[in-house]
Specification:
Structural class: mainly beta
Low-confidence stretches: none
Number of strands: 10
Helix content: under 10%
Strand order of the largest sheet: 3-2-9-10
Order of helices and strands: EEEEEEHEEEE
């Protein structure tokens, strides 16, 4: 069994709170093809209930998290004029070995950042 797994969380930096109810999709990338792996909503802590990619499903490779920021920003009254500056936020990254990967999103209506967390 693999020891690797993937977690994520989203912080709403404009409001200074965890981003609750934000939809996140996870895809595995194979060349030009994307295969859906998981889809989750963030909880009150801005995290998914459990890893978005648990140990049992882990495999090294190229992945993409897609954060549905626009729907969240609309729901929280932060959307601004259409079209939104940020709607879908894709983050493509590689996982090379069996370890814990954590890819958070720090989000505001006009910017975001990410990093490999722990």
């Amino acid at each position: 069994m693999a020891d690797g797994y993937l977690t994520t969380h989203v912080l709403d930096t404009a409001r200074g709170v965890p981003a609750e109810g934000l939809r996140i999709e996870l895809f595995r990338i194979h060349g030009a093809r994307r295969t859906g792996v998981a889809e989750k909503l963030t909880n009150a802590d801005g995290r998914t209930d459990g890893p978005i990619l648990p140990r049992a499903d882990f495999a090294p490779g190229l992945y993409e998290l897609v954060f549905h920021a626009g729907a969240y920003l609309r729901a929280t009254g932060q959307a601004g004029a259409e079209p939104l500056f940020l709607d879908l936020v894709p983050i493509r990254f590689g996982m090379a070995g069996d370890s814990h990967y954590h890819v958070p999103l720090l989000l505001s209506p006009y910017g975001y950042s990410t990093y490999r967390g722990s």
